[in-house]
Each structure stands twice: as C-alpha cells, then as structure tokens.
Amino acid sequence: PRVAVLISGRGSNLGALIAAARDPAYPAELALVLSNRADAAGLERAREAGIPTAVVESRPFGRDRAGFEAAMGERLAGAGIDLIALAGFLRVLTEGFVTAWSGQMLNIHPSLLPAFPGLDTHARAIAAGVRLHGCTVHFVTPGVDEGPIIAQAAVPVLPGDDEDALAARVLAQEHRLYPAALAWAASGLARLEGGRVAIGAPM
Ligand code: GRF
C-alpha cells in the first residue's frame, strides 16, 4: 500500500518510518508526507529522502475543519494513498474524515492508552506516580486517542525522571514501535474488524 505520513512538526517518527521503509522487504511505500504547517522540520527529512511532500496549511481554514480536510483529501487522492499514518499531526480530524479512512489510518500516542489521552502525557505520568509509561499505536476512530490498539511499548518511570528524560525514553520506543505497527497494518496482519483489532494472517 501507498502510505501518507501526516505531520505538524519535528518528524522524528517520520524519520524512523523512512529508515524502516528503505528495506525493500518493508510492506509499505511512503508515497507522500503531508504537513499542515509549511515550517514543519519533518518536511526536510522527507525531501532528503526523496519522498513527495505536500503542505496544506490549516490556519487559513480557521474553524472550517471540513474545508481543510477536503483540501487534504484532494492531495491524498492525487497521490493514490491507501493508508494514513499520523505522526505528530496536531489537528483533530472530523468524524467524517475519520470514518472515510476507517481501518486505514493509524496514530502514535505517547502514553500507554487508555491512560493519559490528550496532551502533556509525560508530565501527567510523572504527576500520577505511575511506574510504567510508554507509547501506543492505534487505529484512529472519532474519539481522540480512543481507537483500537494495535501495539504498545512500555518503559519504566525512574526516580528522578523529569518530563524531558521520560519523553526521550518513550520516544526511543516510538521509533521502534511505529515502523513495526505500520508494517502489520500495511501487510494485513493487523486489521480493524468490528471495532476491534484482529492480529494474524487473514482467515
Ligand atoms: C510523538 O511523541 C508522538 O507520539 C506524538 O507527537 C510526537 C511527535 O514527534 N503524537 P515527532 O514529530 O515524530 O518527532
């Protein structure tokens, strides 16, 4: 399948996906990197890797989320995209867009969902005193950070951790987890079936 990676910023997860997809045996092709911000650093990573990029600025659309998504949809259709990987994409998508891509859109979230949906996950994990934290790749459904879970990786929260130290430990796991989970989805090994994730070869 042809994958579009949607970003808003740094793009370190994009970098991990690019590195994994260099293997000819990787089951997905990164066919487009789309950003809602022209200044996203991740765009440069894509250009260096020779992956087509698109910028659809969300700001001019203001509250017109459907208009923004229609503009994105045109670029995705133009690139023949089958699968979307959200990677630090900081716009909430409408139910219409999410439903249109049901089972074909993944997100990575920096916590062990269902704990700590939303923002500031590392600070919240430290404040809550949890001993395990991590990251989750899930199919995207209309509820933010609520979609069925494909894969997770856990890390310890260590005494003396601050937000940055914990974030770095989680991020290293994100960079291992996302390429693996995307490969499962792209190869059909992980599928959304009846609102749950089925893992394994299709029957
Ligand atoms: C990551 O922590 C990811 O889990 C979250 O946003 C961050 C994006 O980082 N959704 P990067 O742009 O991939 O470096």
UniProtKB/TrEMBL annotation:
Active site, per annotation: H109
Q: Which GO terms describe its molecular function?
A: phosphoribosylglycinamide formyltransferase activity
> Which residues of this UniProt protein bind N(1)-(5-phospho-beta-D-ribosyl)glycinamide?
G11, S12, N13
In the UniProt record, which is one GO cellular component term? cytosol
What InterPro entries would the database entry show?
Formyl_transf_N (IPR002376), Formyl_transf_N_sf (IPR036477), GART (IPR004607)
From the UniProt record, list the reaction(s) this protein catalyses.
Answer: N(1)-(5-phospho-beta-D-ribosyl)glycinamide + (6R)-10-formyltetrahydrofolate = N(2)-formyl-N(1)-(5-phospho-beta-D-ribosyl)glycinamide + (6S)-5,6,7,8-tetrahydrofolate + H(+)
GO biological process: what's one of them? 'de novo' IMP biosynthetic process
- Record EC number: 2.1.2.2
Cross-referenced SUPFAM superfamilies:
Formyltransferase (SSF53328)
What CDD domains does the annotation carry? FMT_core_GART
Q: Under which pathway is this protein filed?
A: Purine metabolism; IMP biosynthesis via de novo pathway; N(2)-formyl-N(1)-(5-phospho-D-ribosyl)glycinamide from N(1)-(5-phospho-D-ribosyl)glycinamide (10-formyl THF route): step 1/1
Write down the superkingdom of origin: Bacteria
Q: Does the keyword Transcription regulation apply?
A: no
Residues annotated to bind (6R)-10-formyltetrahydrofolate = R63, N107
Per UniProt, the keywords (alphabetical) are: Purine biosynthesis, Transferase
Q: Where is the Formyl transferase N-terminal domain?
A: 2-182
Instruction: Spell out the NCBIfam families in the cross-references.
Output: PurN
Q: Which family does it belong to?
A: Belongs to the GART family.
Provide the protein name.
Answer: Phosphoribosylglycinamide formyltransferase
Source organism per UniProt = Muricoccus nepalensis
